[in-house]
What does this fold into?
Amino acid sequence: MRGEFVPESDAAACWSGEDEGMEPRPFSFFPPRRSRLAGIAAFAGAALLLSGCSVQEVTHTVNGEDVSDAERPLAADEIDACTALSDETLEALGLAELEPVELTAADAPGCDWSGINDYTTPSLVIWVTEPATPSEDDEIVTIDGVDVNVWSIAGNSGRYVAYFDDVTLSVNYLGAELDIDAHDALELAMSDVLEHYGRS
It folds into this structure.
């Protein structure tokens, strides 16, 4: 057994000198009366060191890459979607005066910024859902180094979707009467969402 203490009586003999005719004797770093106790103490210390060295860092695969627990993003359900957008983004998208509403449906949790009238007031919805398979027909844009699918675009409204191994992040925006390009609006929002969920 590795690290097993061998009593002094069983220890291998070694030569204490080079002259011929000298008898071998048991070798020990400790005085004879204390060698057994000291040896046990040394063994215990070595066992502690070995146990400490044997601890291995646990890694997980996230989007095809191995990451440690420290690098692993928080689970989606541990993050408040209603705090995903920065004040600057809310202002740029015409949402600053709207009160976000948490979406609690089991199949489509997230957050909703909706005005009184979608035709006159911009609105935005973030959905945080289970992993899904993206369509191969979608246009792909890159935001902060992450490939994002263009699910739909029409005028100043549309939806971007980011697919990951453990979660799907969707941003749906209706620009209403706000003069803003849909791609610009969705890129602003998705950039905040990716950062908020630790994906960029």
Observations:
- The mean pLDDT is 75.
- The radius of gyration is 32 Å.
- The helical segments are 35-53, 87-92, 182-196.
